[in-house]
Automatic annotation (TrEMBL):
The keyword Aminoacyl-tRNA synthetase does not apply. Residues 40-474 form the Amino acid transporter transmembrane domain. Signal peptide: none annotated. Keywords: Amino-acid transport, Membrane, Transmembrane, Transmembrane helix, Transport. This is Amino acid transporter transmembrane domain-containing protein. Pfam families: Aa_trans. It comes from Ceratopteris richardii. GO terms for biological process: amino acid transport. The keyword Metal-binding does not apply. The chain crosses the membrane at residues 44-65, 71-94, 140-158, 170-189, 195-218, 289-309, 329-348, 391-411, 417-436, 448-470.
């Protein structure tokens, strides 16, 4: 292993990219982009893969449960409405990558930079707090979800061997630790631009388990030859009071919001696109593909899952087939969930890595520890360049997320809180406000009023979803034992 004393020429997310500049040559070379950074190579396909990887995640597994709380009338309407809002707001946000001109203006590399360029002031700090809290929360949520699927595979094997459900209670903690160990290794991928292969694999996995879940639900549905569910969802009788029913509806809204959330990394995804064509045009196409495919899967998964299980739909649809084969297919689907979340975790955590590293590099004053690189020689004349600070900090981040996931293992409630936290400010409010500022939309015009009504409505939904999900966490905490509660 050789030590390199040269400081990186590019900071932040691309801090440790190899530059094509030769010694004594300060001019840009053919592999540099118009801003001096390494040439972007992303396409509509890779951007769509990033979107699908980010959107079709653990949220799809909770959709039948959300449908059960909303019922046959409100459920599909809510799913489709969230899709329309997410799609339209994503188009507005895609035009904020460059400013002031949306085609030839200065690049905004992150969501926060776009907010700073268009709004400025305290808006930037508020955006940063919400965005990175949402990104970190999503990483924690994905750790939870991956462990549920890993334990489901182990439990399935135990049931086949013993036939006794009572003897197959398996802790989620070892699975979370294993997932975290894998993420420590993958966290050393330098930046978003190097994630394209992992996102494509993850997107394939998301299609796989979504199709399997849909197929098994169809099998269960046709086997019973009966559509389950009611027009109004779970009925407020017995152990479910009217107040609890209201909390569950709010929590379901948060779960649906989480299922569609990816706006917090849209700008970062767009920053991987090559040009020409203009990045906003490519991103619009990628958004159309990503949201379109996602909505089809969500409508099918949510509706078919609800039809198969009715108001008894489990919080995680793959957990509903414990006594309904084929076991090997459900195990494979859960394995696909784990592989998908391995990639999705990195898609959401890379912006966090980039933000912290950019901050540290700017304040380090040339510290040897911060900048020093090491080169590891690999077979086939490959080399891997890494930095001790990057290795330690990213590993610490993964460890912290894993510990929090082990402390707060509440699947549906956590998804609802994450959805509520990020939906209104990141998916709706900032895209609307930046569009108004960029296009100089005058107050009280029809366009301005329409955008404000949509924003205010989504704010109310986010508040309701947050209250419902927090109430769910409060109820869970009454019977929760740290590091001992087993997720199901």
């Amino acid at each position: 292993m050789d030590e390199s004393d040269s400081a990186p020429l590019v900071r932040g997310a691309r801090a440790f990219e190899t530059s094509c500049h030769g010694e004594g040559n300060s001019s840009l070379c053919h592999s540099d982009d118009d801003d001096g950074r390494p040439k972007r190579t992303g396409t509509v396909l890779t951007a769509a893969a990033h979107i699908i990887t980010a959107v079709i995640g653990s949220g799809v597994l909770s959709l039948p449960w959300s449908m059960a709380q909303l019922g046959w009338i409100a459920g599909p309407i809510v799913l489709f409405t969230f899709a329309i809002v997410t799609y339209y707001m994503s188009l507005l946000l895609a035009d904020c990558y460059r400013s002031p001109d949306i085609v030839t203006g200065k690049r905004n590399y992150t969501y926060m930079q776009a907010v700073k360029a268009n709004l400025g002031g305290i808006q930037v700090w508020f955006c940063g707090v919400v965005q990175y809290a949402s990104l970190i929360g999503t990483s924690i949520g994905y750790t939870l979800t991956a462990s549920i699927s890993m334990v489901a595979i182990l439990r399935s094997d135990c049931l086949r061997r013993t036939g006794k459900p009572s003897s197959c209670h398996i802790s989620n903690n070892p699975s979370m630790i294993l997932f975290g160990a894998v993420q420590i290794i993958l966290s050393q991928i330098p930046d978003f631009n190097k994630l394209w292969w992992l996102s494509i694999v993850a997107a394939i996995m998301s299609f796989s388990y979504s199709i399997i879940g849909l197929g098994v639900c169809l099998g269960k549905l046709f086997d019973g030859c009966h559509f389950h569910g009611t027009y109004g969802g779970v009925v407020a009788i017995g152990n479910t009071t009217e107040t609890q029913k209201a909390w569950l509806i709010c929590q379901a809204l948060g779960n649906v919001a989480f299922a569609y959330s990816y706006s917090m990394i849209l700008i970062e995804i767009q920053d991987t696109l090559k040009s020409p064509p203009p990045e906003n045009k490519s991103m619009r196409k990628a958004t159309s593909v990503g949201i379109g495919v996602t909505t089809i899967f969500y409508m099918l998964s949510g509706c078919v899952g609800y039809a198969a299980f009715g108001n008894d739909a489990p919080g995680n649809i793959l957990m509903g087939f414990e006594s309904y084969g084929p076991y090997w297919l459900i195990d494979f689907a859960n394995a696909c969930v784990v592989v998908h979340l391995v990639g999705a975790y990195q898609v959401f955590s890379q912006p966090v890595y980039a933000c912290v590293e950019e901050f540290v590099y700017e304040g380090s004053s040339g510290s040897g520890f911060i900048y020093k690189e090491f080169v590891l020689s690999l077979p086939m004349d490959w080399t891997y360049r890494f930095n001790i600070f990057q290795l330690l900090w990213r590993s610490a981040f993964v460890v912290a997320c894993t510990l929090v996931a082990m402390l707060l293992p509440f699947f549906n409630d956590i998804l609802g809180i994450l959805g509520a936290l990020g939906f209104w400010p990141l998916t709706v409010y900032y895209p609307v406000e930046m569009f108004i500022a960029q296009m100089q939309v005058r107050k009280w015009t029809k366009e301005w009023l329409t955008l404000q009504v949509v924003s205010a409505t989504c704010l109310l939904i986010s508040v309701a979803a947050a209250i419902g999900s927090i109430e769910g966490v409060i109820q869970d905490l009454k019977v929760y034992k740290p590091f001992k509660t087993i997720l199901r």
